[in-house]
Amino acid sequence: MSTRAVPAFFLYGESVREAEPRFLHIETIPARSRPADWTIRAHAHRDLNHLLFVTGGGGRMRIEAELVDFRAPALLISTAGGVHGFDFDPETQGYVLTLSETYMRELVARLPDCRGLFAGPLAIDVRPEDFAPHGFSDDLERLERELVWAAPGRALALEGRLLCVLSGALRLTAGAAAARAAGPKAALVARFREAVEAHFRSGEGIEAYARRLGVAPSRLRAACAAVAGASPTALVHDRIMVEAKRMLLYTSMTVSEVAYDLGFEDPAYFSRFFAERAGRSPSAFRTEAKAAEEV
Question: What is the mean pLDDT of residues 238-256?
Fold first, then answer.
């Protein structure tokens, strides 16, 4: 039985290792994708976040179990721990910016505006007229050059260039970022999502999560409704579904094995739970998803 849902790498292909606290890297899309025949198979990074700025071409991005088409100019985001992969059109152009989870959290703590950008995976096409202003492409090129220089003040220059790129990304995704804006309720929901990530297999109820967070269940429900437009229970179920789809797609585990791994005592109940939310049984989902990948 295979229990690893997806391959885990440092960047892509390199063995897993701990990222430096302020790890920052930028490279062109062709640099890594052309040698791989423009296909980056589904994988995950334990502690790295990616922002891809597609300036020419297009392709398809996998976000967990979903496949999303994109055309340049586009902004693609994958967050630490999330499954992602790419099928680029040949000669697609752009940049891949990578920064560590530790650095991302530091930036969010100092600059709350960043929270909207890193709230979750994202794939959006950008209007061409929004991409050119403010020299956004120039900021990416300057950041790439700064990374290979060893001039005095390099650390200051790197962060300055990075902040210019991130502010440009926020402006490109103003609508999406505004929908995920910071605030007390958003901060509570972010803490709740972290707790769910650690305990979604436990089967514990919302009251237990609220105790972990030191808030009343009613306050947690109100925050989730305001920020996520869903109940806390629905968010827990969403996380279970993400993991169920990962296992069905990327492992050879049987449906019963997936059910037990996710904390279900009855595989039949898990199948009903899955079918109510996915519109088809776990077995049908696995078959249809694999068929779609072969198209």
Answer: 91
Residues 6+ positions from 229 with CB-CB distance below 8 Å: none
Q: Is residue 84 part of a domain?
A: yes
Tokens encoding 52: 């891809």
Shared domain for 82 and 104, answered yes or no, is yes
pLDDT at 294: 63
Rounded to whole angstroms, how far apart are CA atoms 115 and 109?
A: 9
State both tokens at 197: 């990530």
Domain that holds residue 278: 184-294
223 in the same domain as 255: yes
Q: Compute the distance between CA of residue 197 and CA of residue 184 in angstroms, rounded to an integer.
A: 20
**pLDDT digits over 127-178, tens only?**
766 666 555 678 888 888 888 777 788 888 888 888 888 888 887 776 544 4
Q: Indicate whether 153 belongs to any domain.
A: yes
- What six digits make up the tokens of 266? 């009855």
CA–CA separation, 180 vs 182, rounded Å?
7
